[in-house]
Design a protein that fits this description.
Length: about 625
């Protein structure tokens, strides 16, 4: 739906932004200046006690100095309540007393049709609720009581019952005046493909109404009471109202709870959500019978920047977590993160809360793991890394996964975290094993010494030998001798691109904590190089800061040398371009002079000789004055 020009501006002007935001925050009146429309409050988007959230009525914008959330009234409604853009416009228009622009006839027809379908689903919801109180639903009521659901919970979630009848719901809705076509389109009854009387989709099931973000009933989920039923859970089919891949169970209630400070918890099913809500975790939602989709992830992030995925501890829950890793990585970034809780084996949230109480669930939620931890666990658990090939395969899988992250800063932090975990898993071979003077693993006695001695006959790196290659070699040598320094300069080491394959292997070993034959060869070569030298020649292990300063200085000089080399190459290219241009210009001048010298009207030999002599002198003058230098333009 398109909006006329100026409509949004008029909307913002009519409603002070502080009125919209004031329903979600408590203003700090000591810090605020009400007369100027300058308001301060604790931020509603992250937990804090200080008033760092600023709202300016005159400008119509808000900004949080803590989490950098910002925007106008519409942005606030979308982020705080999870509304779509047009939904936020409608809410603000109602606040301002402005009528929404009339849609085109087709859009109006579709809107009217949806309104009629909402009436059908709400009528069905009320009918299911009444059926739960009948004698036919005694088994269903007993089941709900065994699961710990009281009447208040049943009313809160509008839980109902569909009797085991093929035509009861359809007849009840037709008696209320709804057309059969509407009942079919709402997904409540089905028409046989070969023709015949329509039949109810939900029969002999406990019914869980599914509502959208505005609390409207869009579909139903039903749990079978018959243990032999083909499907334990059955959802409404795809309809104009219901798309199971774009909605979440308990969305509206959870969104309201999250806006009040509750975490957004994503469980696996309806009963998990209800159990969490009864235990005080009101921000619980669930996907609708399928694995979490991309659209559902985006919907979660509109409600909370860091949802907690709470999965059952069985094999199915583990598989769901693994699938979600690959789905989430290409979308993750700042304010779009996930944390994970894997419940004890064989337990869902309801089981855990009943056996250990809400405190146990709270402890798990407080210890939720970030996505990078699950990625690492997936690629390493149950595997043996006893060869360079297996370690390389691990590196490749992790690099491929991290490369999918679109946000550069997030990608860098993932890389740093993975390197840290890799060092914890494999250790740092350079540091742990030590090296003798020939680059081979040294004895444990040598490892216990507190002095790392450099090869004899070294020279300082401040003479003509201090080119980029030697600076690079000295940096790698120092990092190999003092692997504890690698973490400090990892980012700078990653920018090195050694031309020598052995040095490249050594660099890879330093960054990953590995040990390859090629890297060992490079270390042996560096230690034997008489031109390599460090200042001082003996670096004591306890002198951490001095060694770090030397390494930083080496890298600074190396980067400066390479930067100078790049500039020199560019200058040479530009000079060559000037030479080519200047030479071309001079040759044109020579050709023009030669042409003049050979014109027919100058066939008189005396004149010709005089002109050629003059031409020869001119050429000689040009050569002595460097003809490739074109005079500057004036």
């Amino acid at each position: 739906m398109s909006l006329p020009p100026g409509f949004l501006d008029e909307l913002r002007n009519r409603v002070p932004i502080s009125r919209v935001i004031g329903r979600k925050v408590v203003w700090d009146l000591r810090k605020s200046n009400q007369a100027r429309g300058d308001w301060w409050a604790p931020c509603p988007f992250h937990q804090e006690k200080s008033a760092s959230f600023h709202c300016d009525d005159q400008k119509g914008f808000y900004y949080c100095f803590g989490c950098q959330a910002k925007g106008d009234a519409l942005t606030f409604l979308r982020n705080a309540d999870g509304l779509e853009f047009m939904e936020a416009v409608k809410v603000l228009a109602a606040e301002a007393g402005m009528a929404m622009p009339e849609p085109d006839p087709r859009a109006r027809e579709r809107s009217d049709r949806r309104s009629q379908l909402f009436e059908v689903t709400e009528a069905a919801c009320r009918w299911f609720r009444l059926q739960l109180q009948t004698g036919a639903a005694s088994e269903a009521r007993d089941y709900l009581q065994r699961r710990g659901l009281d009447e208040e919970t049943e009313r809160q979630f509008d839980i109902g019952y569909a009797p085991d009848s093929r035509h009861a719901l359809g007849m009840a809705l037709r008696e209320k005046g709804f057309d059969e076509s509407q009942i079919i389109e709402a997904g409540l009854v089905a028409k046989p493909e070969g023709g015949g009387q329509v039949y109810d989709r939900f029969r002999g099931r406990i019914i869980f109404p599914i509502r959208d973000g505005q609390g409207r009933c869009i579909g139903f989920g039903g749990r079978a009471m018959d243990p032999n039923a083909r499907a334990k859970y059955l959802n409404s089919p795809e309809t104009p109202l219901f798309d199971k891949g774009r909605n979440l169970y308990n969305l509206a209630s959870a969104r309201s709870a999250v806006s009040k400070g509750q975490p957004l918890i994503v469980a696996e099913g309806y009963m998990d959500v209800i159990a969490l809500a009864r235990a005080g975790f009101a921000g619980a939602v669930a996907p609708l019978g399928t694995a979490i989709t991309e659209s559902q992830l985006q919907l979660m992030w509109r409600i909370s920047p860091e949802p907690i995925i709470a999965l059952d501890g069985d094999a199915a829950g583990q598989r769901a977590a693994q699938r979600l890793i690959d789905l989430a990585l290409p979308m993750t970034g700042a304010r779009q993160a996930l944390r994970f809780v894997i419940l004890p084996a064989g337990k869902d949230p309801d089981d855990l809360i009943k056996s250990s109480g809400a405190g146990a669930m709270r402890a798990l939620l407080d210890g939720a793991k970030p996505l990078v931890d699950l990625l690492w666990a997936r690629e390493t658990e149950g595997q043996v890394f006893d060869s360079p090939e297996r370690k390389a395969a691990l590196d490749r899988r992790l690099q491929d996964a991290i490369s999918k992250i679109p946000d550069e800063l997030t990608r860098q932090h993932y890389s740093e975290e993975i390197r840290s975990k890799r060092r914890e898993l494999f250790g740092n071979n350079w540091q742990r094993r030590g090296f003798d003077g020939k680059g081979r693993p040294g004895s444990r006695k040598a490892q216990r010494g507190n002095v790392v001695r450099l090869p004899a006959g070294v020279t300082r790196l401040d003479g003509p030998n201090a080119g980029p290659s030697l600076l690079e070699g000295a940096s790698l040598l120092l990092c190999a001798l003092r692997p504890d320094l690698v973490a400090r300069v990892e980012t700078r080491l990653e920018r090195l691109v050694p031309q020598d394959p052995d040095r490249a292997a050594l660099l890879h070993d330093l960054l990953t904590g590995g040990q390859s034959p090629a890297g060992a060869r490079a270390l042996e070569t560096l230690r034997a190089d008489a031109h390599l030298g460090l200042t001082p020649a003996v670096i004591r292990e306890q002198d951490q800061e001095n060694a770090a300063a030397i390494l930083v200085n080496l890298l600074d000089r190396l980067e400066a040398e390479r930067a100078a080399g790049t500039e020199l190459a560019r200058a040479e290219t530009e000079i060559q371009g000037e030479v080519d241009e200047g030479l071309t210009w001079r040759m044109q001048q020579i050709a023009r002079a030669r042409h003049q010298a050979e014109r027919p009207e100058m066939e008189d030999s005396g004149d010709m000789n005089e002109d050629r002599d003059a031409l020869s002198a001119q050429l000689q003058a040009w050569l002595s004055k460097e003809i490739w230098r074109k005079p500057p333009r004036r």
